[in-house]
Predict the 3D structure of the following.
Amino acid sequence: MNKTVKSYMYQGNIFNFIVLVFTSLFETAGLIIVSLMLEKIMAIATAKDINALYEQGIIFLTLLVVFIFVYLLITYLKPKYQRKALTQYKNNIYGKLLNKNISGFNKHNTSTYISALTNDVNTIEENYLFSAFDLITHIALLLCTVVIMLIYSPALTASAILLSLLPFAAALLVGSKLAAHEKKISDQNASFMHFVKDNLIGFSTVKVFKAEAQINKLFLQNNNLLEDKKAKKTRTLTVMNMVQTMLSLVAQFGVFFIGAYISIQTGEIAPSVILLFVQLMNYIISPLMEIPSLLSKRLACKPLFEKIEEIVAAEEITEEKEPIETVESITVSNLTFSYEDKVVLNNVSHKLEKNKSYAIVGTSGSGKSTFVNLLLGKDSNYLGNIYYNDTELKRISLDSLFEISSLVEQNVFVFDDSIINNITMYANIDENLVKEAIAKSGLTELIQEKEADYRCGENGCNLSGGEKQRISIARALVKRSQVLFLDEATSALDNETSASITNHLLSIDNTTKIMITHRLDEEILTKFDEIIVLKHGEIVEFGTYSELIANNSTFKSLVEFSK
């Protein structure tokens, strides 16, 4: 049975949890003992027994030393428990995210994942992590208090319990709304973060098109929605606290009044006992008010745990996937793919052979990128078949496919790290191979100017678009993959640099090269073994450059239009 992400909070943390439970119980016992000592001192004062008073003072000092030791232990263990629980919890959330396949990951937007790792985890820390200790403490305090009260006066105890139920009922009624508020805040926070992230990434577009006022208006709307939901939760808590405080005062006054009445009428209860009951009332009212609140907060965390479990869950594998070690051929048969009821690829069939180079061309929207993405296993919701050798892609382990393939995309992502780490992707790669990749990708000048440990900035903001693409190409070259997919890999480069790098890529031995390109230069395209022409999601023709020009059809039209 698979472990839930939540269970990792307690892995290797049980000892800390148990010790904190015992220290919490000891803390509870201390409160009761001090209350009893106060009652004893009041009785001693009435009897005017100075020696007994000294004895109580010595007992108190001894208990104080023990309490200091217990609190020091709590001070040490509580942060240790917290750190281990949250570190393991977040580590496993992130680990499970990394284990998702690409199509599974893309089912949620990035802001949902960020919100889960920040806002939702913070809420869980605040409302769930230590609530178990608080619940144990309050329940133990309540039970011990009731037992002590019964020993002194069953009648006054019954009155105290009934009066204490007033604030408890208020907490129970109002507290049930907190879970719904917490879920709404979590959902709205994810939406807000998505909006902010999206607009900050597109900051330059906002400025160029002078859309500041409109974007600011949308920000205000999203921000107001989030803060409105937070305000509703705060209002609920404020009302609950106000009602509880008023009813607590009524309960304490009622016990004092009833105790005084019994003392006057029967003389069965001493004044010191009445004061003890008033003191102990706090240990009935406080738990009765806090327990529903704590339970509500824990209940409010349940949908957050479920949400996190849902977004990190990997797709269930119903059959064992086959590893792939070599690629002799890639065969596409009757491949059809639709996105939101729009047919992107329609009944495509073709065979790509080992170590050959293929150029995929076509107008925008013809299905070129979709074709490559499907070959890489980014989406399995296609009709028809994609065979690697003789094995259908859906039966192949994608991890093994990624081991032997590389992808260079048009929109390159560069991590906020050094140039060299972005090339090697933190792997231990032979230095000579890295130098060769740097040279072939045209990065030599950049490395000489800024050095290999130059920090690229958030998504490569310290680099030009061309420099980022060169890093992406070098990243693919050092992997020495059997299959190299390139989606407009040189689009951000000038014609001369693009031609030079493309020549380097085409000269790589023992690699099947599949390149989407919008550059239709004869000098480059003649070096491809085959050119595949896509139009409206279909392969309309394929062949060498000279063959396609001789066909006097779609490809020739594209070439003439590009001049």
User: Anything to note?
Assistant: The chain is about 65% helix and 10% strand. The longest strand covers residues 342-353. The mean pLDDT is 84.
